[in-house]
Amino acid sequence: MNARIADPAAEIRSLAFVDHGPAPFRFSETGPLADLSFAVKDLFDVAGSVTACGNPDRLRDGQPAVATAPSVLVPLVAGARLVGKTHTDEVACGMFGMNPHFGTPINPNAPDRAPGGSSSGSASAVAAGLADFALGTDTGGSIRVPASFCGLYGLRTTFGRVSVAGIMAMAPSFDTVGWLARDPKTLRRVSEAYFGAIGPQAAPRLMIARDAFDIPVNGIGDALLPIARSLGAATEIRLFEDGIAPWLDTFRPLQLHDLWSTLGAWGTAPGRNLSQAVEERIALSATVPAEAVAAAIPRREALTDRLVDWLGDDGMIVIPTAHDLPPRRDAPVSAQVEFREKTLALTCVASLTRLPQIAIPATVIDGCPVGLSLVAGPRGEARLLAFAEALGNLLADRPRP
């Protein structure tokens, strides 16, 4: 584990960036992102560096990557400077950023709280100003949750829209690429490198998922609902028509089955060095009955069809990003598990339906940033980004840490 040191800025840097990453470099001095720096989660291959994925065995046994992941090449070719690779929850199995092997990155906007994961180092680096933007992955909330916890803008892209080649697979039917930034303009500029120019967008048809605001605790729902209503004319809908259970009962077996298929054999090898939480998670993934997976597949498609029909080409659904404030850095594993299950009720919506979601910083409660999210239809990133950029001025006067 990294030693804690007296200089706060150096400590943030030490706990955000891995020691085995590449030295800072860029491909080009020119390009649309040439004035920006970025960091990359240590699940992405960068040629010449080992991809350790937050695990000491992978760091010890891994060979330097022979090619850079296509999703990393995009900002490099656009002129951005790569400043390093960032820490992650072990093999991306986490929502908080707490890695007992390499340390927990610091949440610069709430230092006694978790930064959120699994894109924890990426969020920490951006929130601390050590990079202008950072790449991460999002399976069950790994971009959106750290964005909320650290007071950042975060984009989870439509499943399959950005290549996941050269990235460690955790749950292949859910894994997506996303990025974090401190402001919506930068988030949009990075997105244009992937998707092309984002021009003016028509005003969205807003739908506030009223029942979703009853899920958060500690006054979060009460604080976020009036903000959601201030975004513009909106209708209020019931997202969880049959309650939360059908969503979670669909998400769990599919995500766990994916996890077992990708990491089960590796994670259960004799002598494997795993944290308690990840060992328990992989063991759980081995117990999912085949019939539960088979039953969840058509349920997923039914949920997807309903949301896609609601959203159409112009709709956005507004929901809280997470159900609670960031847990404290010393929270036990049991508390982390309980937190994860409750926030999954919100994050599983876009994950199950494979839709894009943008997290925006909305307010501060008890000194902690709190995010609001918008979900759009398939390939609706341009609408999300344009709307978030327009909202920037509306949210600028709200208290921030």
What can you see in these coordinates?
With 401 residues, the protein is an alpha/beta fold. It has two domains: 8-195, Amidase signature (AS) enzymes; 205-356 and 364-394, Amidase signature (AS) enzymes (Alpha-Beta Complex), CATH 3.90.1300. It is 38% helix and 15% strand. The chain is built from twelve helices and ten strands. The chain has helices at 8-16, 56-61, 70-77, 120-127, 144-150, 184-195, 220-229, 245-267, 276-285, 290-311, 333-353, 381-395, and strands spanning 37-41, 81-86, 133-138, 153-156, 176-181, 205-209, 234-237, 315-320, 357-365, 368-376. The protein has a ten-stranded mixed sheet, sandwiched between helices. Strand 9 (357-365) and strand 10 form a beta hairpin. The longest helix has 23 residues, at 245-267. The chain is globular and about 50 Å long. The two termini are 28 Å apart. Residues 1-5 have low confidence and may be disordered. GO terms for molecular function: amidase activity. It holds the Pfam family Amidase. Residues 28-196, 272-385 form the Amidase domain. Keywords: Hydrolase. This is Amidase.
Describe how the helices and strands are arranged:
Elements: H1 8-16, E1 37-41, H2 56-61, H3 70-77, E2 81-86, H4 120-127, E3 133-138, H5 144-150, E4 153-156, E5 176-181, H6 184-195, E6 205-209, H7 220-229, E7 234-237, H8 245-267, H9 276-285, H10 290-311, E8 315-320, H11 333-353, E9 357-365, E10 368-376, H12 381-395
Parallel strand pairs: 1-2, 1-3, 6-7, 6-8
Antiparallel strand pairs: 3-5, 4-5, 4-9, 8-10, 9-10
